[in-house]
Write a sequence for this structure.
């Protein structure tokens, strides 16, 4: 999973290499392209994992690796994933960002019964729209133990031109996920009870992480090789449970092309901030030969030590100097590709995000209530629904909607000229963001929750309910 030169997969061939992982991929040929089914087998299992030099650990994995195998499909292809649960607990798969049919969404007890140990469950859906996504377990705290991986849906015709591509998935890592350290900054001196299932009232204090990883490694990640003159595409995914990833590449400037897999007007930035669950696709031009740190700003000794290295350049030292006044990406500076005419929504929901108070540590609320006591958002098919997301707490909340994209019509409460389309949006401390979605994926109950895993299970979740 480390290094990925861009591989154009050839459709219709007997074997399609899915990102060099150990995915057994079979194409089941039918009458035409619409009948092509890509079948992938995933086994959720506990395995030893070498996270860095001298840092062997046990992780919860798909097919014995962290991240799990990258899944790469073409837009419109049928994807069939056969999941076998070899874990000691029930599990599920969630396709983060993909608007899959309700029964395939992988939320235990909401969209399906969890897959019991020893059992197999088959997920199947048509992949689309094109973009950078990821998949992860949606049971309890499982994805914090390693149960996550990238999922790339390629467009039928790629509008961007570039010479190579790397997929980078970031994670905050515990060497021993069975014994997270209570975070003294949170005042959590108490030993936690190990949660066994997704459920209200099962709360675990947020741990202090031992490391930050990229593609499951820290410390000795092989460099990303480039050639002078290359246009390089990075697909960036933040799979962390509770860490925002501020990323920069010394000596280079990013051009943001996609946010949460959806195209945006190309926009420049030196520093990107990826909230938990968010994705960005960026391009950069390799025009400064050297060895440059791709750095998680502020991570200090936790930085995974990833480098971009030009072919033919020797040495081990990074040669990066920070730009004096970095351009920081901001939702307000991003423009979507589709035009937009404001229209009166059919429904408006005002959601106040709060919690984290000293009197109620670990409790995170929407309009003062913790899931499942939060009020569900009732919608009818094809309605336009507006959400006002107001953060009255001291922490940022990456709010994620299942089954739908939303348009960010009011970043920071100001009307957008061309809204960006996302599935996960970080609401900063004190901020108000206005988003709208069209209720176009009927199903009984879809989750809307904070993707900070400890806030989610602390109660910051609600449901969109079709009636
Ligand atoms: Cu990435 Cu509710 O999930
Ligand atoms: Cu949160």
């Amino acid at each position: 999973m480390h290094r990925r030169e861009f591989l154009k997969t050839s459709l219709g061939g007997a074997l399609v290499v899915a990102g060099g992982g150990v995915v057994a991929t079979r194409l089941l040929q039918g009458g035409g392209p619409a009948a092509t089914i890509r079948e992938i087998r995933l086994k959720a299992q506990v395995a030893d994992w070498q996270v860095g030099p001298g840092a062997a650990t046990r992780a919860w994995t798909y097919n014995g690796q962290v991240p799990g195998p990258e899944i790469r499909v073409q837009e419109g292809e049928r994807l069939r994933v056969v999941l076998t649960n070899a874990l000691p607990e029930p599990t599920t798969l969630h396709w983060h960002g993909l608007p899959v049919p309700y029964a395939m969404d992988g939320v235990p007890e909401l969209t399906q019964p969890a897959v019991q140990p020893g059992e197999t469950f088959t997920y199947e859906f048509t992949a689309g729209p094109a973009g950078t996504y990821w998949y992860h377990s949606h049971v309890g705290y499982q994805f914090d133990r390693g149960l996550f991986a990238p999922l790339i849906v390629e467009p039928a015709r790629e509008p961007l031109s570039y010479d190579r591509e790397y997929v980078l998935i970031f994670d905050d890592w515990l060497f021993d996920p069975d014994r997270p350290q209570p975070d003294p900054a949170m005042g959590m001196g108490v030993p936690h009870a190990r949660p066994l299932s997704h459920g209200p009232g099962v709360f675990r204090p947020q741990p202090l992480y031992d490391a930050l990883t990229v593609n499951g490694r820290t410390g000795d990640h092989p460099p990303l090789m480039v050639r002078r003159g290359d246009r390089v595409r990075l697909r960036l995914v933040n799979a962390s449970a509770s860490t925002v990833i501020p990323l920069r590449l010394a000596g280079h400037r990013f051009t943001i092309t996609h946010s949460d897999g959806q195209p945006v007007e190309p926009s420049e930035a030196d520093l990107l901030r990826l909230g938990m669950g968010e994705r960005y696709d960026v391009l950069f031009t390799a025009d400064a030969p050297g060895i440059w740190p791709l750095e998680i700003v502020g991570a200090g000794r936790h930085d995974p030590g990833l480098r971009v290295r030009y072919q033919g350049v020797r040495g081990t030292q990074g040669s990066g100097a920070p730009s004096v006044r970095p351009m920081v990406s901001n939702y307000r500076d991003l423009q979507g590709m589709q035009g937009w005419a404001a229209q009166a929504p059919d429904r408006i929901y005002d959601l106040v995000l709060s919690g984290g108070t000293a009197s109620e540590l670990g409790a995170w609320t929407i309009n003062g209530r913790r899931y499942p006591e939060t009020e569900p958002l009732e919608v009818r098919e094809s309605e336009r629904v507006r959400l006002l997301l107001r953060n009255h707490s001291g922490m940022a909340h990456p709010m994620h909607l299942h089954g739908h994209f939303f348009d960010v019509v009011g970043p920071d409460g100001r009307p957008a000229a061309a809204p960006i389309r996302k599935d996960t949006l970080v609401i900063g401390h004190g901020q108000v963001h206005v988003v709208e979605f069209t209720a176009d994926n009927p199903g009984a109950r879809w989750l809307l929750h904070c993707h900070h895993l400890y806030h989610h299970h602390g109660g910051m979740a609600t449901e969109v309910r079709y009636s």
Observations:
- Confidence is low (pLDDT under 50) at residues 1-24, 179-203.
